[in-house]
Structures are given as structure tokens and as C-alpha cells.
## 1
Amino acid sequence: MKVLKYLVMGTAAFAFTAMASAAEQGTAAEAEAMVKKGVAYAKANGRDKFLAEVGNGKGQFIDRDLYISVWSTKAVVLAHGANAKLVGKDIIDLKDADGKPFMREVVAKAASANNGWIEYKWVNPVSKEIQLKSAYFEKVDDMLISTGHYKK
């Protein structure tokens, strides 16, 4: 009976840890919702105020491993919630951990649709591990607003 008690307690502890770990990472729905929130903010407050808010390291567009990135339709970084050093850089030829030129895919998709999803491997800013990332973007005027969630 004692063994069964410890087995149940151990299973419960493992399940709790797994749930807590999953809660630390954003979901696809949360990533898409963050982009939509960013789009609404940009339309309501204007481009400059929106870009400043995205660049605010403690602002409303950062949540755990979710953050907004904003690029021009030519892949120049306009604002970045996780790495302000990228602002102003042309990243059209940026490749993921496997050598995939994912920004070219984003720009091509944005030219034919106002929104979409792409996948690439990127460093998770929280865990510092390379993970598969699924990113959602929407095109607003000459800006591409994106947030991605990391998959385990």
C-alpha cells in the first residue's frame, strides 16, 4: 500500500511539473492573439507609438517566450521585443538553425496574403535552446507584425 501511495504522489508531481512547464511557453492561440492585439494597437495609436511599445522590454507585447517582431515588407527590422540590436537591420537572408532562409518565406507569403504561419528553428529567449518555432504574421500597411510560439 505504501508503494502505491508513493507511486500516486510521484505521478501527480510529474503531471504538475509537466503542466507548469507547458504553461511557461506560449501557445499558437496566444501568439495569434498577441499579433491581433498589436495590429489593433498600431491602428489605434499609430506606427511610431506601436513600434516604441514593441521595443519596450517590459511592455505589453512580451509574455514569457512570446514577443512581437515588426519588419518592413522588405525584411528590415522596425522593432523587436526580444532583441533591440536587430532594429534597422536587413534580415532578408537570415537563416534558421538548419540554414532555412525563413524571412524570404515570410516576405513571399506576405506579398500574396495579409497573414499566415511559417515554421523555423530559433533560439527560445527563455530556455536559450534551439526549438522549432511556429510564427504567425499579419501585414498592416508596410509592416509585418509577427509573434511565434516555440514547440517542444
## 2
Amino acid sequence: MTSSLSEGRFRQAEFWRTVYAINPEAGTTVEEMLEEKFWAHVSRTLKPWDLIEARAEDGSFYAVFLVRDAGRTWAKVSLIQAVQLEPDAEKADGGTKDYISKWTGPHTKWRVVRVADKSTMKENFADKESANKWIVEHEKAIGK
């Protein structure tokens, strides 16, 4: 064994691996991302030692994964780091006892969710006020 590192083993990290950033849909968990099938649509792009930064669309967590292996429709990843950013990813930002409005990220923006079954009623509201207005109008329309 040599006592020093040879120049051929010393490179910028970008030479050996790629860092990807993903924005999983609201409600996706870190545990789901550890499943090989989660990566099916992008696995052809991945190679061992790549890093994946996951930023939850709803702002609830940040995680880093290391790609250990990948095939045509699967990838094995290991969790390097996970940080919970919001104690409650379902945090409501307004609404009534039956419907809540909440921010779910840049793709679906403000969303109205029915409390009883957590179904999305409508999404892509530009702001909280528009989502809350929809709730009021919807409840009037159904006679509440």
C-alpha cells in the first residue's frame, strides 16, 4: 500500500458522479423513495455513486440519496440524509371544518382538500385567498 494518493485517483467530484435534484409530489414519503420501483421512469439515467437531492413539493422535507445500482426500470438507493422541515406536512393554511386549503408546492400550488377523506377537490390556485374563496362558494353550492 502506498503512503500517498496518486493523481489518477484525485478528480473533481463531477468527473465521477452526477448530482440530481427532484421534487417529489406532495405526499410522497422518504420510505417510498427507498423502493426500487420508485425510480422506474428515470433509472436508465442513474449510475452508481450518483447523488439525488429530494425536495418535497410541499416543503415538508429534504433528503439526499446515494445510488448504489440501477437498471432499466429500477434503482437501489441508500438514504444519506433526511431533514423534516415541517412538523406536519398536512398543515392547513385556511378553510373550514370540512375543507382545508394548503400550499403543496410549485407544481400544484394551493390545493383544497376534503378533511373527511383527504381527497383533493381542486388545485392550482394562485393564492390562499382564491382557494379559501372556492371553499366558501363550494359550501354554498352544496347547501352548507
